[in-house]
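Lab notebook, bench 4. Still working through the backlog of constructs that have no structural model yet. Next entry is a single chain of 192 residues. Request: give me the structure tokens for it.
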Amino acid sequence: MTAAARLGNVRYELGDAQVQRFDSAGFDVAISRFGTMFFSDPAAAFANIATALRPRARLVLLVWQRFEDNEWARVIDAALGDAAQPPPRNADPFSLGKAEATARVLERAGFDGMRFEDVHEPVFYGHDLDAALAFVKGFQNVNAALATLSDGEAVRTVERLREALAAHYDDERGVVLDARSWLITARRRHPV
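Model written out:
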């Protein structure tokens, strides 16, 4: 995609953001779309990212707001019933959902000028109910919950999931559930 757009000044890095050795002050922007919530040590990861950014370079994140603010997650958990389990600490999609706490983590990591923009856009799971159900069954928490159930209980739970998704289906839009996320922007602080 980058080559097709003839962008020669873009570089991709694959690694663990907590420990990856980035070029010091080598980047103008760091962008994450629904990934940073899964850092096992957000403070270490954001501090490491800060060292990779030039002074006043931008950090741009899209993260889920709190669980309570996301209908899609509440609906899925309700369908899972007693099988729903709290996410492990390093796999919590809502770990950065509290703006004040996330701002403190970013500030300690070397960022300032934090802005949290409320993004209130629905989650679209597709036009086909079966495809939407297959997609949701692939979620780590759903898969783990179903694995704890007997075969009969799992079948009943999947049927509840189907019914929950069907309740949010219409012919024109497909399967759509309400969602809220934060578009977080910040700048790397100028070293003192």
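Notes after review: Helices lie at 42-52, 71-80, 99-109, 129-137, 140-147, 151-166. The CA atoms of residues 171 and 177 lie 14 Å apart. Flag for follow-up if needed.
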